[in-house]
Amino acid sequence: MSGHDVLPAVNRRHLLKGAVGASAALCSPAIIRKAWAAETITLLTWETYHDDPWIEEWGKANNTQVKAVRIGSVDELFSQPFSGAVKPDIMYIETGSLPRFKAAGLITDIDVSKVPNAANITSQLDWKKFTNVGGSTVAIPYNWGTQPLMFNADVVPEPNTWAALWDKTYAGKVNMFDDCTITFPMIALHVGAKDPFNLSEAEFAKCEEALRALRRQVRVIARGFDDASTIYAAGDAVIGYCQNVAVVTSLQGKGKNFKYTLPKEGTPTWIDCAGISKQGNRPIVYKFINDNLSSQWQARFIKVSTNNGVLSPSAAKQAGLTDDVLTITNIPDTEAPGFWDKLVVYQKPEDLDRRLQIWNDFKAGTL
Predict the structure, then answer these.
(1) Do residues 155 and 238 make contact, with C-beta atoms less than 8 angstroms apart?
(2) 146-268+346-364: what CATH class?
(3) What's domain 12-144+270-332's architecture?
(4) Which of 46, 216, 314, 318 falls 20 to 30 Å from 12 in CA-CA distance?
């Protein structure tokens, strides 16, 4: 297959979804639910965020059926509620997309006073600034993280710039993930845009040129964390834009020598927040969000998923997390001078539809 071909990889999560749906119908889950659950909560969440044993444990303790629908991109997250197949109570949304979700009527204002465990969110995370839409708070953080440059250290000397993705040495071995919302800012940083969320006409033209050249580098586009891990483990990619550092740690757990770095141009950074739909505006939903921010829940989440969660370094240690666990997250890094200066937190873009059209043209090879 030539380096000019961009083929979306098959995500086994989507294949399994149909099988699970069929078997669930045979088991009549609605009947089973009535046997023990007084209420139901439906989540639109991400891989590694809400493992089934955790939510089942919480559900039984609170007489509630919790259903987790796991998505692989912000674009999928936005489209799912409109499909009619999923009616979420809680959606886990990165900050830059919150205005779009609010404008579409997918989320409502959130009452922070009903989430006392929000006090556990590290003060280093200026979350209220990024979750304010129209003067109201519309979401509360659950997890944050960087989207760095990842690479196979056995093949790639440690890079310090996004330009490494365009290095012809790695033609056909570069991986991207299928999410326009959180990929385009990296492209903008690479071309030197003054503000990666408010591009000029000249900067848009530079982004298109960069994507046109990047297409020759990319053979496979990942759809989700697990999909990316599989692609790298198989040797189909040696360098790429990292959707979540959990991809790197999962590869390390398989004995693969993958690492990540924060490029000099700046690293896109997300804060994934729990947003509540109108139907989700219920006490049991607030309780779920609040319990997810307890130090005990967060410590387990951080340890098992290698995500950052929302705890400060000291709070994470008080919750029982050891240095060997913390060192594979960004949590200790937050105390390093200048760390936050390297990060670019997602914000509302100037024209998402235009970005999406360019991204789709990139994937189709018509750019």
Answers:
(1) yes
(2) alpha beta
(3) 3-Layer(aba) Sandwich (3.40)
(4) 216
